[in-house]
Amino acid sequence: MKLYGFPPSPNTWKVRAVAAHLGIPLQLEFVDLTKPRTADYLKINPTGRTPTLVDGDFALWESNAIMQYLASQKPNSLWPNDARARADITRWQCWQLAHWGADACMPLVFNRLVKKLLNLGPPDQAAVAKATDVFNKEAKLLDAHLARQPYLVGRELTLADFSVAANLLYAKEGEMPLEPYAHLRDWFGGVSALPAWKETAAAARHSGGVAEHPLSPPHPEEPARLLSMRSG
Ligand SMILES: N[C@@H](CCC(=O)N[C@@H](CS)C(=O)NCC(=O)O)C(=O)O
User: Fold this and answer.
1) Which residue range(s) make up the domain with 8?
2) 65 and 88 within one domain
3) What pLDDT, in 10s, does the model give residues 101-113?
4) Does any domain span residue 47?
5) Atom 11 in ligand 1: which residue has the minimum CA distance?
6) Given ligand 1 and candidates 42, 50, 94, which is best to mutate, with the most ligand atoms within 8 Å of its CB?
């Protein structure tokens, strides 16, 4: 299977980390987000975004759907064969895309890291304040949840953990206010220590020249589209 993606972005990262965890080989096809997508790429993903999985004649976009598809390839505890567990995992993945990523983590990373890297001027303080409020609201909920159980769904690591943790990849650079949330910090520490997570980090360093500045793209002309980070 091939994965078309941009290695430092959380959406490509979480897919690769899951594949690594499950021992599913994925051939990475680097998509340069600083350039217009090719006609061939738009055939497999008309949204023009990344990542996209290609398995024979089947092309699939949307990172969380890709993770579910990969994890359906063989029995495993990341995606247990149980309707309620799968619905629960999907619930967290929907929450991650709609709220945690889009409204809390990504605006902080965009304003405090991406803007700096791309010389886009100072952070938009109103956007930062708004995202910080949302971050605290959602992190409080996550922290309370993780005070009761070790992982997001049940007692074992699942796809939900990979999805939600990916948005914390640049927590330091985005100055995400994690300090009050000890359970969340511990949980993220555990996910980050997974061999598959480390392997993904190493692989990202070797693809796309992202060693020291993981979000630093070589070409600053499409900043607003990079990582689909919203400025406000
Ligand atoms: N909901 C999508 C989001 C995909 C997305 O926004 N990808 C970004 C990189 S992280 C992208 O390709 N941005 C370039 C663009 O929007 O053209 C997913 O989870 O796959």
Assistant:
1) 2-77+211-228
2) no
3) 999 999 999 999 9
4) yes
5) 49
6) 50
